[in-house]
Design brief:
Shape: globular
Strand content: 15-25%
Order of helices and strands: HEEHEEHEHEEEEEEEHH
Radius of gyration: 24 Å
Distance between the termini: 59 Å
Structural class: alpha/beta
Largest sheet: 10 strands, mixed
Length: 376
């Protein structure tokens, strides 16, 4: 009888253990299959700054979804900043990156704790409940870095949208917001390509009057290079603006190569372009070089005054250039009121093999099926 009791107790214990084991497995499977909609990188303890940076991707052309996670890794692991990276995602497929979907960037509520925003979006039409976090951040007068397409970050075709005035080509009744967020906050909206797209690269020429500016620490004149062309910028940009770097258009020495990451351009290219534009509309792109990096103040109605830095160089392939990374790391320090060191570590982390810039159709992104967690 006693043996039966012991055996029964053994069966119960084993059954309970199996049940707990099953629970653990199910929990593990749930965690493994959890939908990840944004990435968080905690600042390295040895260099912890206790500052929060939110990096917002969402452009169809320049691979911000590849560049910003790498930037966040550098800022967190090498410089101690807590970073959160957000991505464009189809509402019907959460957790999958889809730059072509313009109506959803989950996680913008993180802006409530942000000390700096790094924006790299293009023609987004985000819902009111997401845009309100962005506007609240700007009304606090907190700093922002706009990269490349951030000059035309938003595009609202619905003229009844509460944030329609943020649109890149806004021409409505609100006179203070003509040409939208880009013009109001950063200083310029989308205007034009300057130089020949995919054929002439960009080299940064430092403004002699501001060569000692902290953001330019460690950067030599002409050292900044990227395969993306110069954007056309109307000057003067606005009052209270400091142009740090101008964009020199550089000719490609090698043959054009559609399959090459840089389309045949290379950092060793040095010949200044003297001719650009379509037939009948040619011009010398270096006769009047547009700015590619500038600082300006901004202030929203009933808001505090803040600082914005715009860099029209900074695509994923541009980010392979050490000086481009140095520029953006220095800018982050400057806008966060952190002391800039002479030679900060801006080395790439892990395998960084950015795609060439260019547009892709919806089928491309469906086939790629890139998950947010793939960019960890």
């Amino acid at each position: 009888m006693l043996k039966k009791v012991y055996f029964l107790m053994f069966v119960i214990v084993v059954a309970c253990s199996c049940k707990e084991l099953k629970k653990e497995v199910n929990t593990h499977e749930t965690a493994k299959n959890e939908v990840v909609e944004w990435l968080s990188f905690k600042g390295e303890d040895s260099v912890q700054k206790e500052k929060n940076i939110v990096l917002i991707s969402g452009d169809e052309e320049y691979r911000s979804e590849e560049m910003l996670p790498q930037f966040a890794k550098i800022l967190s692991q090498k410089h101690g900043f807590n970073c959160t990276v957000l991505f464009a995602q189809d509402i019907a497929q959460p957790g999958f990156v889809n730059p072509n979907y313009s109506f959803n960037i989950p996680g913008l509520e993180h802006l409530q704790q942000a000390d700096l925003v790094i924006l790299f979006t293009r023609f987004r039409a985000l819902p009111t409940e997401q845009m309100q976090f962005f506007e609240a951040y700007l009304k606090e007068g907190k700093p922002i870095i706009g990269i490349r397409t951030a000059t035309h970050a938003f595009n609202f075709e619905n003229k009844e949208h509460p944030y329609v005035h943020y649109g890149w080509n806004y021409r409505g009744e609100n006179q203070d917001w003509q040409l939208g967020f880009g013009k109001k906050v950063l200083g310029e909206t989308w205007y034009t390509h300057h130089g020949n797209h995919k054929h002439q690269s960009t080299r940064g020429i430092i403004n002699n009057e501001l060569q000692s500016h902290p953001i330019l620490t460690g950067i030599k004149n002409g050292a900044i290079w990227g395969p993306t062309d110069v954007y056309g910028i109307r000057t003067p940009i606005s009052v209270d603006t400091q142009v740090l770097v101008y964009g020199k258009s550089v000719e490609r020495k090698r043959e054009f190569n559609e399959k090459d990451r840089f389309y045949g351009m290379q950092e060793s290219d040095t010949v200044a372009a003297t001719l650009a534009g379509a037939e009948g509309k040619t011009y010398n792109p270096n006769e009047n070089m547009p700015p590619i990096v500038w600082l300006k103040s901004y202030q929203l109605e009933n808001g505090k005054k803040g600082k914005a830095l715009t860099s029209t160089i900074g695509a994923a392939t541009d980010f392979l250039d050490l000086e481009v990374r140095l520029l953006l790391v220095n800018a982050s320090y400057y806008l966060l009121d952190e002391k800039i060191v002479q030679t900060p570590d801006v080395g790439l982390i892990g395998d960084y093999n950015p795609s060439q810039f260019g547009f892709h159709d919806d089928g491309y992104w469906k086939e790629k099926s890139l998950k947010v967690q793939d960019f960890r």
